[in-house]
Amino acid sequence: MPISTGNILFILSAILCIASCNPFAPALSDKDDNSTTLGDQRTVEGVFQNFRYAYQFKDTLSYGRLLAPEFTFIYRNYDDGIDNSWGRDQDMISTAGLFQASQNLDLVWNDIVISTGDSVLQDISRGFNLSITFSPTDIIRLQGRVNLRIRRATPQEPWIISRWRDESNY
């Protein structure tokens, strides 16, 4: 049975459509939402925007760009009544584990409570809401506050986080 010109055009159209569609690339959003783009890390708000982006897309590369080499994460162990801490390497491992274990992360930054410092060093206290979806029936909703120390060598360089003190009390 010979193939008609119409069938050939249909097959070619289907092949072109399939070839131009990359199932491994995320679709572009029609929403005008700043959370889907990277911010300018030379601004304080850009740091928080990139932090949210890294969580939303579970992007360890973007997250790692936020952290200084000497980064320290500090949290309160309320059971023992002491502060514990870890460095950048452990934080990257811990965050990568969270990214892999969760289906969805939704981070919302609330108002900045306190901001002190200058053009190269700032301490910022800010509230947040974080929803962690492990499965449709296992969702954890957290509300808390971070106290970040961000720094940079000159006002033209991007800010990086050198200390993150978690002031939440879960």
How do you describe this structure in short?
The chain is 29% helix and 39% strand. With 170 residues, the chain is α+β, with helices and mostly antiparallel strands. The protein has a single domain, classed as Nuclear Transport Factor 2, Chain: A (Roll), CATH 3.10.450.50.
Structure in words:
The chain is an alpha+beta fold and 170 residues long. It has a single domain, classed as Roll (Nuclear Transport Factor 2, Chain: A). The chain is built from four helices and six strands; from the N terminus they run H-H-H-E-E-H-E-E-E-E. It has a six-stranded mixed sheet with strand order 2-1-6-5-4-3. Helix 2 (44-56) runs antiparallel to helix 3 (60-66).
Give the helices and strands, then pairings:
Elements: H1 5-20, H2 44-56, H3 60-66, E1 67-77, E2 82-87, H4 88-101, E3 104-117, E4 121-135, E5 138-151, E6 160-166
Parallel strand pairs: 1-6
Antiparallel strand pairs: 1-2, 3-4, 4-5, 5-6
Helix pairs in contact: 2-3
- The portion of residues assigned to helices is 25-40%
Through-space gap between termini: 71 Å
Sheet with the most strands, sense and barrel status: 6 strands, mixed
Q: What is the residue-averaged pLDDT? A: 85
Order of helices and strands: HHHEEHEEEE
The CATH architecture is Roll
Q: How many beta-strand elements?
A: 6
Radius of gyration (Å): 22 Å
% residues in beta strands: 35-45%
